[in-house]
């Protein structure tokens, strides 16, 4: 098991800028990709140490190593980040980093609908779009969230 230690952005309440959204996505992607690369390298090294004659399997084979990220409400406590924003950006980053799975840990199951909704939003966001287009769409989603919270 490997741990990723990333400080959450501390933007608090208010409107996220394009630059802040890009920073959040970049930070998540970098941490997730680093975890994947390190985990795969460690697995390959351990495989060779345990059986030097065994060749490591390719990523697509049934016995290949999988990287699963366990995460939660990144920055949504004292830092005051928007939960949907953090769910969406983590799911996107995991997708772009080619992570095999992402599991969100919450104190109760009452937030499963939020997680499911974020996954639906992400499916619409990444569908063949450039990163800048996705950031613009997230920016617009944030505006919608703010409007719905003010009414």
What do these coordinates show?
It is a single chain. This protein has 151 residues and is mainly alpha-helical. The chain has one domain. Helix content is 54%, strand content 5%. The protein contains four helices and two strands; from the N terminus they run H-E-H-E-H-H. It has a two-stranded parallel ribbon. The radius of gyration is 17 Å and the shape is globular. The relative contact order is 0.16.
Set down the secondary structure blueprint.
Layout: H1 18-50, E1 68-71, H2 83-96, E2 101-104, H3 112-125, H4 131-150
Parallel strand pairs: 1-2
Helix pairs in contact: 1-2, 2-3
Q: SSE string, helix = H, strand = E?
A: HEHEHH
- Count of discrete alpha- or pi-helical segments spanning 4 or more residues: 4
On the 0-100 scale, what is the average pLDDT? 79
Task: Give the overall shape.
Answer: globular
Widest beta sheet: strand line-up: 1-2
Distance linking N and C termini: 44 Å
Strand fraction band?
Answer: 5-15%
Strand runs, count:
2
Please give the radius of gyration in angstroms: 17 Å
Query: How many domains comprise the coordinates?
Result: 1
Low-confidence stretches: 56-62
User: Helicity, in percent?
Assistant: 40-55%
- Secondary structure class reads mainly alpha
Query: Main sheet?
Result: 2 strands, parallel
């Amino acid at each position: 098991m490997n741990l990723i230690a990333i400080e959450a952005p501390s933007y608090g309440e208010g409107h996220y800028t394009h630059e802040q959204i890009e920073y959040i996505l970049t930070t998540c992607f970098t941490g997730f990709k680093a975890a994947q690369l390190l985990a795969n390298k460690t697995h390959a090294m351990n495989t060779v140490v345990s059986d030097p004659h065994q060749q490591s399997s390719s990523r697509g084979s049934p016995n290949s190593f999988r990287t699963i990220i366990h995460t939660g409400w990144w920055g949504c406590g004292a830092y005051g980040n928007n939960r949907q924003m953090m769910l969406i950006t983590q799911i996107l980053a995991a997708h772009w980093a080619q992570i095999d799975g992402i599991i969100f840990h919450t104190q109760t199951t009452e937030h499963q609908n939020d997680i499911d909704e974020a996954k639906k939003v992400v499916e619409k966001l990444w569908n063949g779009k450039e990163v800048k287009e996705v950031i613009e769409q997230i920016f617009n989603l944030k505006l919608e969230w703010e409007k719905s919270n003010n009414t």
